[in-house]
Design goal:
single chain, alpha/beta, Rossmann fold, seven-stranded mixed β-sheet, two-stranded antiparallel ribbon
């Protein structure tokens, strides 16, 4: 039996398009490839998360693991993040991310084609904020979350989105959480 795929995301009636909701690139539309199973974080959820974060991220360093459409990373750059590293392994998604970075003139964004787990194992940089939105129902969120503490600055935060309720691993507290459809999302803070 074939698994039913998620309906394509739509912005302004066009499939496979996401809208930046705040900051410098507000209202800009970004295309992403179809057929790759990408499920960008919906506008309403991104709005909630950035309300939790305080809207603007001036001087922040952010990591967007499993970048996919790049909706979260582009949103962070739009809101003043000094540096956003996007990690993605799908070649079609990489092409779209690079095209959108050029379209926006988003110099703060670095796009790396890599496996997120392998890249994280070799990373020595620390971040103010990590976006953790792995492929839906992959079970990767809990595994990655458990290993993120060394990659965060003191008081650093992790946004996690997955198919089940997030649990805080040792060294983290759940600051806020919510649900949209089948997606559960939470903002965790490193203690």
């Amino acid at each position: 039996m074939l698994a039913k795929q998620a309906a394509p995301q739509r912005a302004h009636g066009v499939a496979n398009r996401v809208r930046i909701i705040g900051g410098q690139f507000r209202r800009r539309l970004l295309d992403f490839p179809g057929g790759t199973g990408l499920r960008p974080t919906p506008d309403s959820v991104r709005e909630t998360v950035f309300n939790w974060l305080g809207q603007d991220l001036p001087g922040w360093t952010c990591l967007d693991l499993f970048a996919g459409s790049g909706a979260l990373g582009f949103e962070a750059a739009s809101r003043g993040a000094e540096r956003v590293i996007m990690i993605e392994r799908d070649p079609k998604a990489i092409v779209a991310l690079e095209k959108n970075r050029t379209l926006l003139g988003a110099a703060a964004i670095t796009i790396l084609r890599a496996d997120a787990l392998a890249w994280l194992a070799n990373n020595r940089e620390t971040f103010d904020l990590v976006f953790l939105d792995p492929p839906f129902d992959s079970g990767l969120a809990a595994t990655v979350l458990a290993s993120l503490a060394p990659h965060l600055k003191s008081g650093g935060q992790v946004y996690v989105e997955q198919g089940s309720t997030a649990s805080a691993p040792p060294g983290f507290i759940i600051h806020r959480s919510g649900r949209a459809g089948r997606s559960h999302f939470a903002l965790l803070i490193k203690e």
